[in-house]
Amino acid sequence: MATANFCRPKFIHHYHHQHQNCFNLPTNLYFSNHLKSKRSDGAQSVRRRRQRWRSSLRVHCQAAATDIEATARAGKDRLLKVPISNIRNFSIIAHIDHGKSTLADKLLQMTGTVESRDMKEQFLDNMDLERERGITIKLQAARMRFIYENEPYCLNLIDTPGHVDFSYEVSRSLAACEGALLVVDASQGVEAQTLANVYLALENNLEIIPVLNKIDLPGADPARVCQEIEEIVGLDCSNAIYTSAKEGIGITEILNAIVQRIPPPRDTAERPLRALIFDSYYDPYRGVIVYFRIIDGTIKKGDRVLFMASGKDYYADELGVLSPNQLQVDQLYAGEVGFLSASIRSVADARVGDTITHFQRKAEQSLPGYKEATPMVFCGLFPVDADQFSELRDALEKLQLNDAALKFEPETSSAMGFGFRCGFLGLLHMEIVQERLEREYNLSLITTAPSVVYRVNCIDGDTVECSNPSLLPEPGKRRSIEEPFVKIELLTPKEYIGAIMELAQDRRGIFKEMKYITENRASIIYELPLAEMVGDFFDQLKSRSKGYASMEYNFIGYTESDLIKLDILINGDRVEPLATIVHKDKAYSVGRALTQKLKELIPRQMFKVPIQATIGSKVIASEAISAIRKDVLAKCYGKITR
């Protein structure tokens, strides 16, 4: 007996609603023509299949609608106002690669802020570079709703960068919080940047909750790390939370601890508005979007607001919270974290650390801690193709809209043509900007060696800041040269102390202090010229300690040094891009290394090419590329038939 052939309908009409696919059932099902001639039991079988299929689709549509309602309900829940006593503002601080972003992901997932199907690793790290390098570069924030003892709580997480280049951004985000999670790797222990961030948190009087992460690793030793934290930092670790963010262990305990141990914001809604900007970015359609925390007062949509440091005023076109996507609201109160859009054209008008207040009812005093981002490292960026100069300028201007710390000015080189002299916060900042220019704007770049800003005291009493050796005044016009110094703290296992101290001494370091923070680890403090750090210092530190040492540094000021300008002459012509400012004691070794390297790189010519390193008119190192010699008799030797 032939069985009936059941065929699906040729077309299923879809419509899109709130990112869910629902189905509009066709009125008639298409069957093969020969079904009409089959026996009645075959027709009944087809009808039963058709009913089952329709009912399954009906269930699917109901489930999809339920998901849509749940998502909408969750979004509304996060917008519901809670008493200020139920608000918790906290940050996560940690050394690089100790699991900060992974923990933030789990908190978002556990509180239902992000659906499981939308979840991805490093959810708050939006840039491709952040995901590839495993670091946080730009700040992010997220509003979470958590039910504790049948009461709704609003938890505002402010994510922070972990790298030393962005320590100012970390300090401003900590100033927007009342507490912090101190995340420490249970296998690696306390690192240099951990200490730096803890000190920043203590300066802001934050409640610190120790969290020992990665307890699932074979080498994890939470008891030892707890003892380290107590001895080095002085925090009580009796209530430390053991967790594995990757495996989801201990996440509920962290959420409970945030509610129990971090104090709520003060209720200062009656005071004049004061809001702290902790981040901003440029949107090509809406202008600058400002992330802020309200310290005092309230703000409504449409209010005229004043940025106290820049002196600019705008109207608040959009107001909302970050969850972590932007959700608009009409009003925000003291203690809350949100975003503001006011058709601001430049990030320079809404800098990190600035204070927002009402234009009419101004606050008497701005919030403390604001400072301008000062570039510490400079280098030249030149396009490989000279026709890309205008594209490079446009790309730098667009990047500067998002990065107020990036400075640049036009520069001309006889060897490399037109380019820009750019200033950065540090080496990582420089690498990130260069990589973004090449990747996002499809530019091929030549980068000159990084340098620092020197301060030249002239005989006539003027002081000149110089980041380019070609702009250094003549020896007869200058009285002295000062260079920037940093205080650097090196944390290392005791077996590498000798190698680390040798490295610091070679880089003109001035020894200040050494102490054992535990039985097996030491802290060494040096004062070091910044110019000695912008090269391969970090690479050498990791190499000599087999990756176990870590460092943290901060700028302490300018110190007079015996510095000179080292010029490179190729075939008698001075090459300005190769000029450098070096200490007098290192001039010979640097000059010798440069001339030898150039001899390897420059191809041979039909004539002899001398390469010289000079100080003024004195040659201190010299190499020569010999001429190509044509041997006219070479073919006369050996067997002539070959």
UniProtKB/TrEMBL annotation:
InterPro entries recorded: EF-4 (IPR006297), EFG_III/V (IPR035647), EFG_V-like (IPR000640), EFTu-like_2 (IPR004161), G_TR_CS (IPR031157), LepA_C_sf (IPR038363), LepA_CTD (IPR013842), LepA_IV (IPR035654)
UniProt domain Tr-type G: residue ranges: 85-266
CDD domains the record matches: EF4_II (cd03699), EF4_III (cd16260), LepA (cd01890), lepA_C (cd03709)
Reactions listed under catalytic activity: GTP + H2O = GDP + phosphate + H(+)
A GO term from the CC aspect: mitochondrial matrix
Enzyme Commission number(s) from the entry: 3.6.5.n1
Positions of GTP binding: 94-101, 159-163, 213-216
Gene3D superfamilies referenced in this protein's UniProt entry, alphabetically: 3.30.70.240, Elongation factor 4, C-terminal domain, Elongation Factor G (Translational Gtpase), domain 3, P-loop containing nucleotide triphosphate hydrolases, Translation factors
Membrane topology per record: Peripheral membrane protein
Gene Ontology molecular function, alphabetical: GTP binding; GTPase activity; ribosome binding
Main localization (coarse): mitochondrion
Keyword match Protein biosynthesis: yes
Subcellular location: Mitochondrion inner membrane
UniProt entry tagged with the keyword Membrane: yes
Superkingdom per UniProt: Eukaryota
Keywords: GTP-binding, Hydrolase, Membrane, Mitochondrion, Mitochondrion inner membrane, Nucleotide-binding, Protein biosynthesis
GO BP field: positive regulation of translation; translation
Family, similarity comment: Belongs to the GTP-binding elongation factor family. LepA subfamily.
PANTHER family in alphabetical order: TRANSLATION FACTOR GUF1 HOMOLOG, CHLOROPLASTIC (PTHR43512:SF4), TRANSLATION FACTOR GUF1-RELATED (PTHR43512)
General function of this protein: Promotes mitochondrial protein synthesis. May act as a fidelity factor of the translation reaction, by catalyzing a one-codon backward translocation of tRNAs on improperly translocated ribosomes. Binds to mitochondrial ribosomes in a GTP-dependent manner.
Protein name: Translation factor GUF1 homolog, mitochondrial
Organism whose genome encodes this protein: Solanum verrucosum
Lineage of producing organism: Eukaryota, Viridiplantae, Streptophyta, Embryophyta, Tracheophyta
